[in-house]
């Protein structure tokens, strides 16, 4: 094979996914396993095992590098991880060293939401744009920024924390220590909380969505309110960055039909007049592959 091939990791609180990716974006091998609650050594050992399975299945003697998409707001230049609420056993570990010596491969680390944004920009919903924003609506809310056709990570690698825009002064407490963050109104966790506060029995955001689809007025009101808050957050992003496109992904995006009309109404109401119709709001296209593809692309760019 003439193309360069990299490993790419999507490190989540529930699952670990490792793939082998060519420089043109073709996935040659996919491996995954539960993250589990083992020690940091156990997690890194499992990632290395999956990487070796990728090497064998892809038929590659060596990889040019190993890109790691990590759910953290801070990645030190030396590879030390901080602020991993979903994988606390990796706090303070050096991912570049830990994976580097286990796989004998150079490791490049990037925030997971930034990686997903770059993946969609490379091969997905924002391909061909110049300036793009990605938002991931899941258990929490993450974000990433493409500025002048390059991923912008900022100092410490944590740029794009859209989930922590303060929408409601003194509002719902957030895990970041603040109050009123967008994440507390637009995530799957927020939807289930609103349902619980409204006396509904639905235990998951998916269950609330199913009720909304069946015509339940209370469930529809929850998604409409969530959409309004999301539109307000997007208007702040739109006014500040003036992107060509904003891509919305993550599990909550499956409720698109229920929240999107309210999102667009709020975005229009709160955006500057010249930006109301300029920006496109679209759904992500790559699903679970966005993060690993973005991690791979970021890695190729760093070589």
Summarize the structure in short.
With 303 residues, the protein is an alpha/beta fold.
DSSP strand content: 15-25%
Alpha-beta content class: alpha/beta
The dominant shape is globular
| CATH superfamily caption of the largest domain | ATPase, nucleotide binding domain
Q: Assembly type of the shown chains?
A: single chain
For the largest beta-sheet, the strand count, sense and barrel status come to:
5 strands, mixed
Secondary-structure element pattern, one letter each: EEEHEEEHEHEEEHHHHEHEH
State the domain count.
Answer: 2
- Rg over CA atoms, rounded to whole Å, is 19 Å
Please give the CATH architecture of the largest domain. 2-Layer Sandwich
Describe the structure.
By secondary structure, the protein is an alpha/beta fold. Helix content is 39%, strand content 20%. It contains 9 helices and 12 strands. The strands form 3 sheets. It has a 5-stranded mixed sheet with strand order 3-2-1-4-7, with helices on both faces. A 5-stranded mixed sheet has the order 10-9-8-11-12, with helices on one face. Strands 5-6 form a two-stranded antiparallel sheet. β11 (245-249), α8 (256-270) and β12 form a beta-alpha-beta unit. α3 packs across α9 and α7 (217-241) crosses α8 (256-270). The two termini are 19 Å apart. The model has no long low-confidence stretch (mean pLDDT 96).
């Amino acid at each position: 094979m003439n193309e360069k091939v990299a490993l790419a990791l999507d490190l989540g609180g529930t699952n670990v996914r490792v793939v082998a990716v060519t420089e043109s974006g073709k996935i040659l091998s996919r491996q995954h396993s539960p993250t589990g609650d083992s020690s940091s050594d156990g997690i890194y050992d499992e990632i290395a095992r999956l990487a070796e399975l990728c090497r064998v299945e892809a038929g590659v003697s060596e990889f040019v590098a190993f890109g790691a998409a990590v759910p953290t707001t801070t990645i030190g230049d030396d590879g030390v991880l901080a602020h991993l609420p979903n994988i606390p056993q990796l706090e303070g570990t050096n991912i570049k060293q830990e994976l580097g010596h286990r796989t004998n491969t150079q490791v490049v680390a990037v925030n997971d939401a930034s990686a997903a944004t770059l993946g969609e920009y490379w091969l997905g919903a924002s391909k061909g744009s110049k300036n793009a924003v990605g938002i991931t609506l899941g258990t929490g809310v993450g974000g990433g920024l493409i500025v002048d056709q390059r991923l912008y990570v900022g100092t410490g690698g944590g740029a794009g924390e859209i989930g922590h825009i303060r929408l409601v002064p003194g509002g719902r407490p957030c895990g970041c220590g603040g109050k009123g963050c967008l994440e507390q109104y637009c995530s799957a966790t927020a939807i289930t909380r609103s349902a619980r506060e409204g006396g509904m029995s639905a235990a998951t955001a998916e269950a609330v969505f199913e009720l909304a689809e069946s015509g339940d007025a209370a469930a529809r009101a929850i998604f409409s309110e969530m959409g309004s808050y999301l539109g307000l957050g997007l208007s702040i992003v739109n006014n500040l960055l003036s992107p060509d496109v904003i891509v919305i992904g993550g599990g909550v995006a499956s409720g698109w039909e229920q929240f999107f009309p309210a999102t667009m109404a709020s975005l229009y109401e709160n955006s500057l007049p010249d930006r109301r119709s300029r920006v496109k709001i679209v759904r992500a296209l790559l699903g679970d592959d966005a993060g690993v593809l973005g991690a791979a692309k970021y890695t190729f760019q760093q070589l």
